[in-house]
Amino acid sequence: MQLTNIGVIKELFERHGFSFTKSLGQNFLINPTVCPKIAEMGGCESGVCALEIGTGVGVLTQELARRCDKVVAVEIDTGLKPILEETLAEFDNVEVVFADVMETDLKSLIAEKFGDSEVVVCANLPYYITSPVIMRVLEEKLPVKAMTVMVQKEAADRICAAPGTRDCGALSCGVSYYSEPKMLFKVNRGSFMPAPNVDSAVIRLDIKSDNGLNVTDEKLFFRIIRSAFSQRRKQIINPLSGELGIAKPELAGLFADSGIKQTARAEELTLKDYAALCASISNRNK
Ligand code: SAM
């Protein structure tokens, strides 16, 4: 069944009485070249298992199932159930879990369904939960090798911006802390049904086993980063002083100890700089 054929999709929808829910980010892929590329560039192959988030009619699920040992997909919309039963019928290595991914214990799901196998995450993410899903996979340190996801183009640019460069933000710092992000390819808005108002891009995040930063207090590290970017045009010493309750003169000394100039702005610091600052602040009363 050609799931990128508009006629086929419309016929499926009519027969099963399905209609799109815009608020769930239901823009389904109809460009036949995209899903095979996501699966291949996402590392789907024999010996690998894939976790998908958001199946739609199963267009990407099929490509993952063709290449991987096993696929588990989390989909919130139970209205898609009869459609998926039909579109995925030929695959005995796919299981769809109908649940909200944000309410799902992904660590347990991976352990239960995949055991010790190598796991990759591949998805065309619903735009309204792009960052929370990515950060959950990273922060919960899920045992996955890589995450290859389609997101809105602007989000992809922000996520892939290197810390210490003009376009970076708290999200790119978080992503780079846990992974190596890479922009794979752009997907124009006409590749979806219905077509969204913006273009998309596929990115791949390779999870780092060790980022070499030796951060001992991650909570403080990310608090510093969030505070720094909360007023990105300002010198970070100002929001940080308020956030941490440390007077500016003392904080200036800690900046100097970390080799950071007092006038630095959030986008000028690399992750190494943030890690050094975090260590100085954390050790100040020791
Ligand atoms: N993979 C399909 C494709 O590429 O055509 C569908 C992608 S569509 C952008 C996003 C999918 O995620 C939809 O099927 C939607 O119902 C599902 N979804 C939205 N919110 C979700 C959530 N919180 N948990 C799980 N799935 C969700």
Written account of the structure:
With 286 residues, the protein is of the alpha/beta class. Helix content is 40%, strand content 18%. It has 2 domains: 6-207, Vaccinia Virus protein VP39 (Rossmann fold), CATH 3.40.50; 218-284, Helicase, Ruva Protein, domain 3, CATH 1.10.8. It has 12 helices and 9 strands. Strands 4-3-2-5-6-9-7 form a 7-stranded mixed sheet, with helices on both faces. The chain has a two-stranded antiparallel ribbon with strand order 1-8. Strand 3 (70-75), helix 4 (81-87) and strand 4 form a beta-alpha-beta unit. The longest helix has 13 residues, at 218-230. The relative contact order is 0.11. The structure holds S-adenosylmethionine. S-adenosylmethionine is lined by residues 24-29, 53-56, 59-60, 74-77, 100-102, 124, 126, 129.
